Amino acid sequence: MSSPHPHSPHCPACERYIGPAESCPWCGVDGLKPISLKVFRRLSLFLAPLGIALLATMVNNQELPLLAIRDLTPMMNYGHVRVQGIVTREPTVRRYNKQVDYLSYTLDDGTGHIRVTAYRDAARELANNQLIPEQGRAMEIGGTLTVNNYTHRSLTITSAEHVKPLY
Each residue of 40-51: b (16+ CB within 10 Å) or e? Predict the structure, then answer.
């Protein structure tokens, strides 16, 4: 009788059917599956979290893209972007319990305008770092973009680290 193929569902020693088992339940021969599959299966438990951690590190260290306001389209909705421009109106600042709770102003870069807002913790952080701009001030702002249609765009500041006065 000829020996079955080494990757067949039969034991190479007793030639009985063993299916996907790693050892023969009848004669005890071990190592019936290819070693690469065994190793890969066990290493995948360690490689998957390592890959996710590497991906998260790359995303966190990536700089936000600088775009002109006219180039912001509905396809970019909820994307994280950066824009530069001049504050065209005095900021609206609302307070709750003597702390800044809301901040809003309009930014114009010559190609269009965008409403910039900050809520709660981000607004307080901007106030504490003296980053509430005056009318006419040039700013670079990064945040989460919301585009309802081509004419209404807004940018929500999530952290003061993405707000820089330009001069």
Answer: eeeeeeeeeeee
